[in-house]
Design brief:
alpha+beta, Immunoglobulin-like
């Protein structure tokens, strides 16, 4: 068989791949269509699908589409090869024949991406640091919450995208997200007067309902998906933070003097500093610490005090511990 006249060809369009991608919502409707141009009666004798630079393709030789009187043809989704797989890029090659000679036409390359982006497995969520010199976020501070996804994202009109935490809307910052990286989403909340979020409440109760993402997809058009599992952003009520200071500690009202490494504790998880433990050269006023501990006892924070006893042993006189131990037991 010879080669048809060079004017014999067909257009080839992948249905659902206007952006040269087939995504998860498009894969079950993928099809081919085109329009033949040429002299005489032309038929399609073969359609092949080539992955990447492979020279051996997956061929369809039966159940081929007929060319209509106006030159149009269509290959139904049911006739598409089942071998077309996620993450692969394909071109379609159509062979035309006039009964004596043949000609081939090649489509543009199309990539199958049918996997939805999800949060990465390890540490997908990160919180911005509390401003220096503060024990917690205060009115006017902006809290940033960054989510890292498994794939590069496209951000279009993202208005209304947010994460709800303890009834507060952390709104997507599109500019900050783009700056942070192509797989990152940055949500922000400006602390208002009277706000209070305890560490134990700082979580995403149900990501499927508490996360809203509008017009955010991967490059193929797949929308991010989340599980309903609760996301814990602050893992414990009692968190220690070590800071090294020269002279006065940055926390107001705490005068440690000299060089110190205080251990700071938020005992009740409300974001405020409850206890400072200092060892070595710069002990705190033990009367003040005793008062704090006694106040905790009044609040029935007995289990917390027991955990702190070992840390405080060098500061509080032994007789004080005997009294506290008696009160706890």
């Amino acid at each position: 068989m010879g080669i048809c006249n060079q004017s014999t060809f067909t257009t080839i369009a992948w249905i659902g791949a206007d952006d040269n991608y087939i995504n998860d919502s498009e894969k079950d409707a993928t099809a081919l269509s085109g329009k033949v141009t040429g002299i005489g009666t032309l038929t399609i004798t073969k359609i092949e699908f080539f992955e990447g630079s492979n020279t051996v393709g997956t061929a369809i030789t039966s159940g081929l589409p007929a060319v209509a009187a106006d030159g149009t043809w269509a290959l139904a989704h049911s006739a598409m090869p089942s071998e077309l797989a996620d993450g692969k890029t394909y071109t379609a090659v159509v062979t035309l024949s006039d009964g004596t000679n043949s000609a081939i036409s090649t489509s543009t390359a199309v990539t199958y991406d049918i996997i939805n982006p999800t949060p990465i497995t390890t540490n997908p969520w990160t919180l911005s640091d509390i401003p220096a010199g503060q024990s917690a976020f205060k009115t006017g501070d902006v809290i940033s919450l960054t989510l890292t996804m498994s794939e590069t994202l496209k951000l279009n009109n993202t208005t209304g995208s947010k994460v709800v935490i303890a009834g507060k809307d952390f709104v997507l910052d599109k500019t900050a997200s783009t700056t942070a990286g192509d797989k990152k989403l940055v949500f922000k909340y400006s602390v208002q007067a009277g706000d209070s979020i305890a560490a134990t409440d700082f979580d995403i109760d149900n990501p499927t309902s508490d996360i809203t993402l509008n017009n955010i997809t991967d490059v193929a058009g797949n929308a991010p998906v989340f599980t309903a599992d609760r996301v814990v952003l602050a893992k414990t009520k009692l968190e220690y933070i070590e800071k090294t200071g020269l002279g006065n500690n940055p926390f107001e009202g705490i005068d440690v003097g000299y060089v110190s490494v205080p251990i700071l504790a938020d005992i009740d998880g409300d974001g405020d500093l409850d206890l400072v433990v200092v060892r070595g050269m710069a002990p705190l006023n033990t009367i003040k610490i005793q008062a704090l501990l006694l106040a905790l006892l009044m609040k029935q924070k007995l289990e917390t005090i027991i955990l702190l006893m070992a840390l405080m042993w060098e500061i509080i006189p032994r007789q004080t511990w005997l009294i506290l131990t008696a009160m706890v037991t």
